[in-house]
Design brief:
By secondary structure, the protein is an all-alpha fold. It has helices spanning 3-11, 24-37, 39-53, 63-82, 92-114, 116-119, 121-126, 133-159, 172-196, 200-213, 221-227, 232-239, 242-254, 277-302, 306-309. Helix 5 runs antiparallel to helix 8 (133-159), helix 9 runs parallel beside helix 14 and helix 13 packs across helix 14. The two termini are 37 Å apart.
C-alpha cells in the first residue's frame, strides 16, 4: 500500500476524541470509565513504583518495616518517656503507632501524588493515557505500605495483650474511606498545580509536617478539648477536620485502652472521643466525595497543557 492509499484509508476512519471533552458530571463519569478501562496499566504503574523505590537495595521491601518501627521507637522514647506524655495516655506506644499508621497513609498519598506528573514527564509528553493514573498509582503504592504497617500494628496489639476485638472496629472502614477520599482529592489537585508552579511540592512537605502536629497523634483529643474548654468553636473546627476524625476513628478501632467504659461518665474517663464520631465520619465522607469530583474536574481542565509545561 502506497503512502497515499494509506492516508486515504486513515481519513475514512471515524474521528475519536481523547481526554474528557464533556463538562460536569458527564465528563467525570466518562473519565472514571476510561480509568477503569486502563486499570491494568494502573496496576503496572503501582508495581513499577514499588520496585523502583527499593531497586538495588540489599533489604528490598524489608525497608517498609524499618521506617515505622524506627518511628514508634523514637516517639515512644522521646515523646512518651522523656517528655512524659505516656503518663497521660495508657498504652502510649499503641496509641501513637495507630495515629502514625493512619496519617502515614494520608501523607504518602498526598506527597507521592503531588510529584507524580513531574516524575512521569517522559510518558506524559510522548504517550496519551488518562493522566489521573499517575496520582492514582501513588494511592496504590501508599496502600501497600499501609497494609504492612497495619500488620505491624496488629502484632503490637497482640504483644501487649490488647488485640482489637470490639465493636469499635466498625470505625475502621469509614475512617479509611475518609482518608482515601481526601488524600486522593488532594493528590489529583496538587499534581496538576505542581506542573504549573513547582513550588507546590515543597509547600506540601511543610503543610504535611504541620498537619501531623495538628492531629491527635502524639497527644489525645481530650487534651485539646480540656485546654480550649472556653473556646468550643475552636474545638469544633479542630474536631471536624477530616484528618482528625479519621485518626480518632483509627484509635477507636485499634487502641483498646481508649474504649469507653460502661457505666462511667465520658468526662471521667482518661480517653474521651467527641460526640457522634460515626455521624461526623459519615458527613466527612460525603464531603470527601464532592472534593474528589471537584479535584478531578480541575485536573481535567489543567491537563491539556501538561505536555507544553513539562
Amino acid at each position: 500500500m502506497t503512502p497515499e492509499e494509506r492516508m486515504a484509508s486513515l481519513s475514512k476512519l471515524p474521528f475519536e476524541e481523547i481526554g474528557t471533552p464533556a463538562e460536569g458530571a458527564r465528563g467525570f463519569w466518562a473519565q472514571t470509565r476510561l480509568i477503569l478501562k486502563n486499570r491494568g496499566m494502573l496496576g503496572l504503574f503501582v508495581k513499577r513504583d514499588l520496585k523502583s523505590r527499593y531497586k538495588d537495595s540489599a533489604l528490598g521491601f524489608a525497608w517498609t518495616l524499618v521506617k515505622p518501627l524506627t518511628q514508634i521507637m523514637i516517639y515512644y522514647l522521646v515523646i512518651g518517656q522523656f517528655l512524659g506524655a505516656e503518663r497521660g495516655i495508657p498504652q502510649f506506644a499503641i496509641y501513637i503507632f495507630t495515629g502514625l499508621t493512619a496519617y502515614g497513609l494520608f501523607s504518602e498519598i498526598v506527597m507521592g501524588g503531588t510529584a507524580s506528573i513531574l516524575g512521569n514527564a517522559g510518558l506524559v509528553k510522548k504517550v496519551y493515557l488518562p493522566r489521573e493514573l499517575f496520582p492514582l498509582a501513588a494511592v496504590g503504592g501508599a496502600l501497600f505500605n499501609f497494609l504492612i504497617q497495619l500488620g505491624i500494628l496488629l502484632i503490637a496489639t497482640l504483644l501487649v495483650g490488647a488485640f482489637p476485638i470490639s465493636p469499635g472496629m466498625a470505625y475502621f472502614l469509614p475512617s479509611l474511606i475518609v482518608l482515601l477520599l481526601y488524600s486522593t482529592a488532594l493528590a489529583l489537585l496538587l499534581s496538576a498545580l505542581n506542573v504549573y508552579l513547582r513550588d507546590v511540592q515543597y509547600l506540601v512537605e511543610v503543610i504535611i509536617m504541620v498537619m501531623m502536629w495538628a492531629s491527635p497523634i502524639l497527644y489525645s483529643w481530650k487534651m485539646v478539648a480540656d485546654k480550649l474548654v472556653n473556646h468550643q468553636w475552636i474545638v469544633d473546627i479542630y474536631t471536624n477536620n477530616p484528618i482528625t476524625l479519621a485518626v480518632l476513628g483509627f484509635q477507636r478501632s485499634f487502641w483498646m485502652a481508649g474504649k469507653p467504659v460502661p457505666g462511667v461518665p465520658a468526662a471521667d474517663q482518661l480517653a474521651q472521643y467527641p460526640a457522634d464520631l460515626a455521624l461526623r465520619l459519615m458527613i466527612a465522607g460525603v464531603i470527601g466525595c464532592v472534593c474528589v469530583y471537584l479535584a478531578q474536574r480541575v485536573f481535567a481542565r489543567l491537563q491539556g497543557n501538561f505536555a507544553q509545561m513539562l
